[in-house]
Amino acid sequence: MKKYFKVIFITGVLWSSTSLLSCNKYLDKEEQSNVSSKEAFKNFINFQGYTEELYNCVVNFSNNYWTNSWNWGEDEITSTANNFHFVNKIDQGNFWGWQREFDGWGAGWMDQGDFTTRNDDVFANRAFRDLWSAAWFGLRKISLGLENIDKLTEATQEEKNLIKGQLLFFRGWFHHRLMEYFGGMPYINYVLPSDEKLRLPRLSYHACADLAAADFREAADLLPIDWDNTTAGKRTLGKNQLRINKIMALAYLGKNYLWAGSPLMNFQSTGSKAYHADYCKKATQAFGELLSLVESGQTNYTLLPMANIHLNFYTTGQNWAMPGSTEAIFRGPYIDAWVSNWGTSKQYIPLEVGDGDLKFNPTANYVDYYGMKSGLPIKDITQSDVESGYNAEYPWKDRDPRFYKDIIFDGVKVVQGNMPEKEEVDRHANLYTGGSYRDIRTGSQTGYVLRKFIPLTSNKYDQAYSYGTNLHIYVPYMRLADVYLMYAEAAMMASNSATGKADNYSRTAVDAINIVRDRAGAGHVDSKFLSSAAALLPELRRERAVELSFEGHRFNDLRRWLLLTEAPYTVKKAVSFDRVGVFNNQDPSQNRVVNIQENIILERKFTNKHYWLPLKVRDVSMYPEFYQNPGW
Predict the structure, then answer these.
(1) Is the pLDDT of residue 33 over 90?
(2) Is the pTM of this model over 0.85?
């Protein structure tokens, strides 16, 4: 993107925002006299340079601070030494913590004090990206761009379509992101005059989603599947993977409709806590259009093989290659690949073998969602079950293959290379009760360690995060597996059937789930779950929990399903057990344990107000139509 990005500085359209304190100040910013709109927008190179800045408004949430928190459901818990992250505030019911006024460390990615889109200082500017500021800044910039689209006179029709399509996509995307956390918002689709007070009312979720859908739909119609196949895109041939395309627009069109059709959003708009079938039908069609293009070979997107699934999240030894490969659908740019080293690569490993203390733990009750290789769920981790094949004395045996990819469990060989003889005892994960990897401050307090986003060798002995390994971590916003599962959910709830499907795509809801399981090597959905949509829904939810684990989806899933306040989703647990017999250091899944049980570490005390985050007091004080969310 560098070819275009230079134009931002040349034309002087990099809008300063360091002193802006609220959405009001982003939206009514006075015109800057040093910008010539005729020059800035006259041709594709200049206009694309202007548009490129919107990509820098996509927050890299997995590398925005020294250590990074983005899993806020019942899936993850912080160590007791790291109580400044937003997940800790959420656990306490303090949802004000997303705001920088309540974030003394500046550790969050939803609101920062010195927002910038500049890339000239890697270690300073990576922490100055945040959703709240970026969304309002971006919406102002988009409105200016669309208002000046008629000045794009020195351009082909293809180039005009590319510019307008990107602007429309980002307008829908920024609104969708705000709606996801705060509910219906004003829809900013024109330049707000600087000499008029803001009076735009908050819309219902459905009204806002309808406007976003129109933008996503038009963007999908204007944009190509692959920029490399356009004349304009050949200027940056082979470097267009992050540019907004038809597939991204269709993916978010479907997601926007599915979210609008989900119980929480439907309840806010209509008072009904059921799924909204019409919105689910629209989501099904959007996803069906996308998946038909993918499966007919018209795109570059495909599910990664299980052996390479880590490429969705990190690359190593590939000259800092951007993670995502063929499966990631939407990602933002990065400032410097090596920022992965400064926190994220070291936040998961216990102090015993890590360069720093462990920050984030998968909860034991969440790990239980990783069922058996047969495809069946585990009913109770403390009890053997003949039907599924689960054995409580061998709890790590014959599990869903994704369990072994994502989770470090007791006995896993963590250190691969040399280590001092006196420290050999820590080569394998000692996660049994009283083991050296267990510590509530610096190690695992739950009995598990997360490995999904890092090589197993990210420890102080193997040094997988050293500069020479080129480790680059980036968790995508959306990938193809998510689209399959969103399609499944939308199709089943639109038709009230486990075999519901789109008119423009041949596969049913359960087919889509099984495609994801086939890649993983897990068994298909059992026939006992196929009698109705209601019977399949718990398995669909469990499949999302496993396939998309720790990627930042769970909190919003629980919210939109109206489950955030409901048991068992309000507790976080640890597992305890004792090793017995001869320790198998070659295949830890074969190790026998006794006295396995789970204990509650924390129980969240949520009420209905916690389904939406509170808006800033100064913003809701601007005018009555921009009101606070209920209960705050």
Answers:
(1) no
(2) yes
* 383 domain residue, yes or no: no
Do the domain assignments include residue 198? yes
Q: Is the Cβ–Cβ distance between 97 and 86 less than 8 Å?
A: yes
| Beta-bridge partners for 588 | none
Cα–Cα distance, 50 to 143 (Å, whole number)? 12
What are the DSSP calls for 349-387, one per residue? S-TTTSSS---EEE-HHHHTTS-BTTSPPPS-TTS-BTT
**Residue 194 belongs to domain spanning:** 2-69+77-244
Residue range 377-433, pLDDT digits in tens: 999 999 999 999 999 999 999 999 999 999 999 999 999 999 999 999 999 999 999
H helices within 526-616, ranges in order? 533-547, 554-560
The count of other CB atoms within 10 Å of the CB of residue 359 is: 24
How do strand 478-479 and strand 360-362 relate by DSSP bridges? Answer: unpaired
Q: Please state, in angstroms and rounded to a whole number, the distance separating the CA atoms of residues 292 and 296.
A: 6
User: How far does the chain reach from its first CA to its final CA, in angstroms?
Assistant: 42
Judge whether 165 and 145 are in contact, CB under 8 Å.
no
Q: Confirm if 538 and 545 have CB atoms less than 8 A apart.
A: no
In sequence order, what DSSP letters do the residues of 501-545 get, joined into one string? B-TT---BHHHHHHHHHHHHTPPPPPGGG-S-HHHHHHHHHHHHH
The pLDDT of residue 342 is 82
CB-neighbour burial class of residue 422 (10 A; exposed 0-12, middle 13-18, buried 19+):
exposed
- Alpha-carbon distance of 83 to 99, in angstroms, equals 16
Q: Which tens digit of pLDDT belongs to each residue from 274-321?
A: 999 999 999 999 999 999 999 999 999 999 999 999 999 999 999 999
Mean pLDDT computed over every residue of the chain: 93
Fill in the amino acid letter for 367. V
Q: Which two tokens stand for residue 209?
A: 């989603």
The CATH number covering residue 173 comes to: 1.25.40.890
The values of phi and psi at residue 472, to 5°, are -130, 115
- Gyration radius from the chain CA atoms: 24
In DSSP terms, 592 is beta-bridged to 580
Query: Does a structural domain hold residue 434?
Result: no
**Cis-peptide, bond into residue 568, ω within 30° of zero:** yes
State the number of CA atoms in the 13 A half-sphere of 533 facing the CB.
18
In angstroms, rounded to a whole number, what is the distance separating the alpha carbons of residues 508 and 497? 9
Under 8 Å between Cβ of 219 and 256: no
Cβ atoms of 351 and 414 within 8 Å: the answer is: no
pLDDT tens-digit map of 37-92: 788 899 999 999 999 999 999 999 999 888 999 999 999 999 988 889 999 999 99
pLDDT category at 13 given cuts 50, 70, 90 is very low
Cα 509 to Cα 543: distance, rounded to the nearest angstrom: 12
Q: What pLDDT was estimated at residue 561?
A: 98
Alpha carbons within 13 angstroms on the beta-carbon side of residue 190 total 5
Query: Above 60 in pLDDT, residue 8?
Result: no
Nearest residue to 68 (alpha-carbon basis) of 51, 86, 53:
86
Number of domains in the chain: 1
Distance between CA atoms of residues 51 and 40, nearest Å: 10
| Residue 124 within any structural domain of the chain | yes
Per-residue pLDDT band for 126 (boundaries 50, 70, 90) equals: low
